[in-house]
Please model this.
Amino acid sequence: MVQGVLEGADSGAAASQLFAMGITPIEIKPTSAPSASSGSFLENLTREKITQQDLMLFSRQMYTLLKAGVPIMRALAGLQESTVNKSFGEVIKGIRDSLDTGRELSPSLARRPDVFTPFYINMIRVGEMTGQLEDVFLRMFHHLEFEEFMRNQVKSAVRYPSFVIATMAVAIVVINLFVIPAFAKVYAGMKVQLPLMTRILIGFSDFMVAWWPAMLVGAVAAYFSFYSWSRTTAGKLKWDELKLKFPIAGEIITKATLSRFARSFAMASSSGVPVVQALTTVAQTVDNDFIAGKIEKMREGVERGESVLRTAVASGVFTPVVLQMLAVGEESGSLDDMMLEVAELYQREVEYELKTLSSKIEPILIISLGILVLILALGVFLPMWDLGKNMTK
Model:
């Protein structure tokens, strides 16, 4: 009997390492993970954040150094000294210390799950097994670059609509708290029957003036309640499903998610990862728990002997284009090439959709703003109009 602690991404990875050492596992139980950070609360608060760009630069530099024949320990030492982000330098130092104890690179990366994703770790493990570690680092650089590009595209597309909506919300609050009450005092001195629209506006303004503290507390409570709910397993699953059904944005999110799936699957498949393991690792990269659950069910179907195409059809989340490419890829034995075609196709479509997103949303915003102005104008100026007519009689 042998007992001990072994680091791995999951129990399956730990079992594979044990089999490689000639040990047959009887029971594998998770233990507490090592602390990702140390120091006082103030030090952790002011610690420099590790960004996606740091990981991209690390991947690219590792590819260049390993391709040039530099030993991995010397490469990591050089990167530790040259990195601008001191927090990432500490991460590299931890990787070197782990390698010094005899661990392989992928288990050393797995010690920092806050920096390296399971997909990244699994791909590095595949590179170690196939002897193509430098090529895997290059592929991970391109993968991270694609992820960063898509994220920036989405942010730039929603920046203008978000600014307009926020401005409208602030304007509504200011008008109801300060502008309408001033007009209400003027109208109160007229002692005339006000139009229905004006009475509605004044009533809503009086409600906001009287209850704005409760409304503010309710809005903050609603935000934090939604935030807490969306962080639960069931809440995040439901929210990710709802996001796919949003008007206009839902289609873009779906295409971006499918593009991420296709590119990750192509990368894993071309690196020699078995289909079952590839589906497991890809499910962790799509950034959508609903679709990730469907991919996990695909993996279970493939384990039962079903084809990838059949399991994809049963999932109900893939478009006809993806299903057609899967069918061609399985028949021709070039599944990775077909998935790369799908990724590039949807990437171009997402780029186009994001570029035209503002033009699609602008009419909605203009109409909403026009309705708001019309309501305010009618409510504020109708009494003056009636008063002017009465004075001319």
